[in-house]
Amino acid sequence: MLKVTGSAMPGALSILSISVFADTGDGEGDKAPGAPLNRDELSLYAAPAQKFVSSDREAGQLEERVAALRKTAEPYAAWCSGTYGKIKPKVQSAVQFGSDTYSYLKNPPKDFYPRAGVIGFTGILGLFLARGSRLKKLVYPAGLMTLSASLYYPERAAAIARSTGDSVYDCAVQSYAAVEKMVNPQSKAEKSNESETKP
Fold this sequence. Notes:
Strand order of the largest sheet: 2-1-3
Distance between the termini: 111 Å
Largest sheet: 3 strands, mixed
Shape: elongated
């Protein structure tokens, strides 16, 4: 039997000494029987030490198969995403062109249909004049339609000719550079190495 005294009970009860039956554990307590105990020394108020053990759960068959499927599909998903990013602006511009064309044809300018008829007729005339080779069947209608369209729309024809001329010039410069690389396969680094070795 042990007594609880002193600061074990707050207030008026701290003056009273109350008999408390407490188990000292395995019978080998460090306090003699009848010695006063503090409240923290009682097993009733002490929290037991908790031991947490973390265990990683092993992945099941389904999780392993899903992970393998994701790893297999990841390059294809990245490729699809990149392709979608490249194609999306082109599709949007085509849709915008279609909606602009529809709105233009819905409310055309005053002389649009007669001009379109003349341009179409010159294309048919080009097909009639282009007897013989396939090249003539491509060049004559396209040439006559371009000529008649440039007569009706000279400003646009000049702008198209200017931009086409610039693009043709750029293509010619690039093809000239490619042909020059094929004809002279030595690079500048090899030429500089040869000039350094010669005294």
